[in-house]
Write a structure and sequence with these properties.
Helix content: 40-55%
Largest sheet: 7 strands, mixed
Number of strands: 18
Shape: flat
Structural class: alpha+beta
Number of helices: 28
Strand content: 5-15%
Radius of gyration: 35 Å
């Protein structure tokens, strides 16, 4: 079967966009082929700095014929309806339509038309221009007099199609003056001339001969392997950086790994700062010694895009000059941060305390609706002190760490290298003699910042990290700045996942609903986010309705007066408490969604999380996960699956009866009405299993709770096999329904089984 080769050759594509662009190209083209009835065998996309390429194998030479069916009016319908149907279906007369009978709707007309397939090359010729013109670049531009928008100027397009045994055809089309062809170009400097290609194997081999490695993952492997070998030859070890490796592989088409150096005197600067400046400014890797201390080495790895005639001497020298200049700046910032601030050293304050005092004096705003950075620090301090006992931390140390946690934001180093915030605060805290736990907490309080980042483990660090993330979530929830769709400008999803990971990794038992309402109320009362906002909304609505300005002024004064009136404080506080509770519940639901994401990534079933949360009052992440794990293990076995089936049968019967009578089935089972052996056995089993399961849940032995419920499996099966629930005798029927209600209640001691899928 024929194969498709497509290449879009342009100026340099930003490294951060390449991998997604390649995937977008693959998906757009293959989706278009499938929609046209061309089911292919395989597809793979590639990206280099100057090209996107796509190989699609096993594409049929022609799409299949299709039969389109159009349903028309009923037989005997008015003439106008028939004529409208004929026109829409393209029929000359009603005799060309078929009559189809339907048991419910009677006979009606159907037009069936055969639509012949198309040659695949024609489908591709229509599809590619459409994909290129609508390509989803994050940023694009027009150039010259053309109308095409592309990330960088597009120079040429290769598009060939044909079987392996024949010369492929050029798929003919034109986009903004660029005609498709079979000519590409090699490395910009080492092989810039035109290259005529046929199919993918030929294309890939000729590009490699022209110093272009098409596969980004292969470029990454070459860089990593050569960098490790070069470091090892010098008795050093490469500090691996996946993000930087991905970026550098997107900057070169022919990677050449070189080693540069800088003066040892710069190693007095913290290693994290050295790494940050070399990484951010020169896209270079840093090295460390193999010794126990693994100190940073005064060497760095750079990746060139050219084989230099002098073996890279000039390239490494040029990079070394820039690195030394940047490290000189970093050293200056590092030394400046350790001096007294003018006007603050005389107060007898330590360096970080000086930065904090300056932050308060400047009134730096955190968010216009949430106040200053200093106000936020005060909230985090209170919350960290409150959380400390729950995580086994000293409240005073937690409060001290929270007080200083943001002070490094005003340091020179963090101002230049924002990525080392927190880390530098911990370093400065250690230098000024703070308790080691305080220094660790300052360094770790932003963690974890992603799925691969480590989680704080020291109790003080846990308290401050939780306080920082919870304050962020609570604050933006209070002002209704929640994530919407894919937009999450304040990274609230990451903050929630951070809280979850901290709690789970450390086994911290923190009831979230107990921790959140007070901070919510604090923010809303302090910022007047309850009554005032609502009153202003009313006033604004009246203004838009055309109320005269003089009346509006008087109305605004009246609406705002209760806030300043001492007599209104009590009712205002009550409204704040109610609002804080509602927002806490909403934020808890957000945590539940994030927890489902976390568990799904670990292979757990998200419906089991729903089943646990549906019980209400579930706000302890550790307890929820333990219950979900036990429930998952139980349902994986035969007893669990059969009990779930029995539960569903019981609940379906109950729902039907409760809907009929518009009342829930409740009440105790009358033992005197249990005439049959199977219902007696079920009642006895529930009498034993229900309290045993509830007691096991109370002591959080969820495995024991599942074991207790498993005893219901056999009597439930026997009951439904032998007993007619809807008996003719109303009293007997009600008694049996109450027995089903007891099955439901016993299962709900563990989870709401109605939320379980499958």
């Amino acid at each position: 079967m024929p194969d498709l080769l497509l290449e879009l050759f342009s100026e340099e594509i930003p490294a951060r966009m390449q991998r997604k662009a390649a995937e977008d190209l693959r998906k757009a083209i293959t989706d278009g082929l499938v929609a046209a009835g061309l089911l292919y065998e395989g597809a793979r996309a590639y990206a280099t700095p100057r090209r996107l390429a796509l190989q699609v194998t096993g594409v049929p030479a022609r799409s299949p014929d299709q039969t389109e069916e159009k349903k028309g009016p009923r037989v005997g319908a008015p003439e106008a309806a028939l004529q409208g149907f004929l026109k829409a279906a393209g029929l000359a007369s009603i005799d060309e339509a078929e009559i189809v009978a339907d048991a419910k709707k009677g006979e009606f007309y159907v037009a069936r038309q055969k639509k012949p397939g198309r040659a695949a090359i024609d489908v591709i010729a229509d599809l590619v221009p459409q994909v290129v013109r609508n390509f989803p670049w994050p940023k694009s531009q027009r150039w010259g007099t053309g109308s095409l928008r592309w990330v960088r100027p597009l120079h040429s397009i290769v598009c060939t199609f044909g079987p392996e045994t024949e010369e492929p055809d050029i798929v003919p089309f034109e986009i903004d003056g660029i005609r498709s062809g079979n000519v590409t170009y090699g490395h910009r400097f080492m092989a810039p001339g035109p290259i005529t290609v046929k199919r993918f194997e030929d294309y890939s081999a000729k590009l490699q001969a022209a110093y272009v490695i098409l596969d980004a993952d292969r470029r990454k492997d070459i860089i990593l392997h050569d960098a490790k070998d070069l470091a090892l030859a010098q008795g050093l070890e490469l500090i691996e950086d996946d993000g930087l490796l991905e970026e550098v592989a997107g900057l070169v088409e022919w990677p050449v790994v070189l080693m540069g150096a800088f003066e040892e005197a710069f190693l007095a600067v913290p290693g994290e700062v050295i790494r940050a400046t070399i990484r951010a400014n020169q896209k270079c890797f840093v090295l460390r010694s193999h010794h126990v201390d693994q100190r940073l080495a005064n060497r760095f790895i750079l990746v060139s895009n050219i084989i230099a005639s002098d073996d890279g001497v000039a390239i490494t020298a040029g990079n070394g000059r820039v690195v030394r200049a940047r490290l000189s700046d970093a050293r200056h910032f590092w030394e400046t941060d350790q001096r007294d601030l003018p006007g603050y050293g005389d107060r007898g304050l330590k360096p970080l305390d000086q930065r904090l005092a300056k932050m308060r004096d400047l009134g730096i705003v955190f968010h216009e609706k949430l106040g200053t950075q200093a106000e936020r620090i005060d909230r985090i301090v209170r919350l960290a002190r409150d959380l400390a006992p729950a995580v086994g931390a000293d409240p005073d140390l937690a409060a001290r760490a929270a007080t200083l946690a943001k002070a490094d934001l005003l340091t020179e180093v963090v101002g230049e290298f924002p990525e080392v915030q927190g880390l530098m605060g911990g370093r400065y805290a250690a230098l000024q003699g703070e308790d080691p736990a305080v220094a660790r907490a300052i360094e770790d309080h932003y963690r974890p910042q992603g799925p691969s980042d480590r989680v704080p483990t020291d109790p003080v660090a846990i308290a401050v990290a939780l306080a920082d993330k919870l304050d962020t979530l609570i604050g933006f929830w209070a002002i209704d700045e929640k994530p919407t769709g894919s937009k999450d400008p304040y990274q609230l999803r990451r903050a929630a996942l951070g809280v979850i990971r901290i709690l789970l990794s450390n086994g911290v038992r923190l009831p979230l609903l107990a921790a959140m309402p007070a901070p919510f109320g604090e923010i809303m009362l302090d910022k007047r986010l309850v009554a005032v906002d609502r009153q202003m909304d009313i006033a604004d609505e009246l203004a838009s309705a055309g109320v005269p300005e003089t009346i509006m002024v008087a109305l605004r004064e009246r609406l705002l007066a209760p806030v300043a009136d001492p007599r209104a404080v009590e009712s205002y506080a009550e409204a704040t408490v109610q609002e804080a509770w509602l927002k806490s519940l909403d934020l808890l639901a957000f945590f539940a969604d994030r927890l489902k994401v976390q568990l799904r990534e670990q292979g757990a079933r998200h419906d089991l999380v729903d089943a646990v949360f549906a019980l209400g009052g579930q706000d302890d992440v550790v307890s929820i996960v333990r219950r979900v794990e036990a429930l998952g293990g139980f349902l994986a076995g035969e007893d669990g699956r059969n009990l779930l089936a029995g539960y569903r049968r019981a609940v379906n019967i109950l729902k039907a009866e409760e809907k009929k009578d518009a009342a829930a089935v409740t009440g105790a089972v009358d033992a005197g009405l249990l005439a049959e052996a199977e219902e007696q056995a079920l009642a006895a089993a529930i009498t034993l299993a229900a309290p045993a399961a509830a007691a096991a849940v109370a002591r959080e032995d969820f495995a024991a709770a599942m074991t207790a419920l498993s005893a219901l499996r056999a009597p439930v099966d026997a009951f439904f096999d032998k007993i007619l629930v809807n008996a003719a005798d109303p009293a007997l029927r009600l008694n049996r329904l109450r027995l089903l209600d007891q099955i439901r209640a016993a299962c709900h001691a563990v989870a709401d089984f109605s939320k379980i899928a499958g």
